[in-house]
Design brief:
Blueprint (H helix, E strand, L loop, with lengths): L1 E2 L9 E2 L12 H13 L14 E5 L5 H8 L4 E6 L2 H13 L6 E5 L17 E6 L7 H9 L5 E12 L11 E9 L2 E8 L2
Parallel strand pairs: 3-4, 3-6, 4-5, 6-7
Antiparallel strand pairs: 1-2, 7-9, 8-9
């Protein structure tokens, strides 16, 4: 069962699309990522990185990552997903957790340039999560062309989930890796977009 693992809505269940459509990050992997966010990446004033953060969840699937951020105090999440079944599940999860006003869904392809909703125009992303299908090179493509770079600063933290077999050489041309962690078949990279 997929669930919220921390914050104000800890333990609340999440629906997820059929496994043939998406591959949700395991609870163990998500918990590890959020432990790292809470303890390794804190703001200069010592406050949690997630507090009042503006989040971009690419390849959102069920929305588990962005919804977890909202449960832990983030102020807003933009979800990008283009699979109709995943979009339906994501919207149902937003409704059941009462996060409709703190989030927006963009029905779009994370591998192509996309415009942000007009309601977003004044914001910058604090945190971006990329969780594409494994072994297709989608993390690299998204870093190269996917999200609008003018809403990313040198302080924007990017977390990418890849298969453990995926090479980092090309990714590191666009991405400075600050930390790398392995959990089962998942490799998580924490870092910043190169200028």
């Amino acid at each position: 069962m997929l669930r919220i693992i921390g914050g104000s809505l800890r333990g609340r269940p999440l629906d997820f699309p059929p496994s043939s459509i998406t591959r949700p990050t395991s609870d163990r992997g998500r918990e590890a990522v959020f432990n790292i966010l809470e303890h390794r990446f804190r703001r200069q004033d010592g406050i949690s990185f997630l507090k009042d953060a503006v989040v971009l969840d690419l390849f959102a699937g069920s929305g588990a990552f962005g919804l977890e951020c909202l449960s832990r105090g983030s102020s807003f999440c933009l979800f990008v997903e283009n699979n109709p079944e995943a979009l339906s599940v994501l919207n149902a999860n937003r409704k059941s957790l009462n996060f409709l006003e703190k989030s927006t869904i963009l029905n779009g392809d994370a591998l192509k340039p996309f415009d942000l909703p007009s309601s977003f125009k004044e914001k910058m992303f604090d945190l971006i999560f990329l969780d594409p299908p494994y072994t297709k090179g989608y993390v690299l493509k998204a870093l190269m062309v996917g999200f609008p770079k003018k809403y990313v600063s040198s302080k924007t933290l990017i977390i990418a989930e890849l298969d453990v077999t995926e090479e980092l050489d090309e990714i590191q041309e666009y991405f400075t890796v600050l930390e790398e962690r392995l959990y089962g078949r998942a490799k998580f990279l924490f870092g910043h977009l190169k200028p």
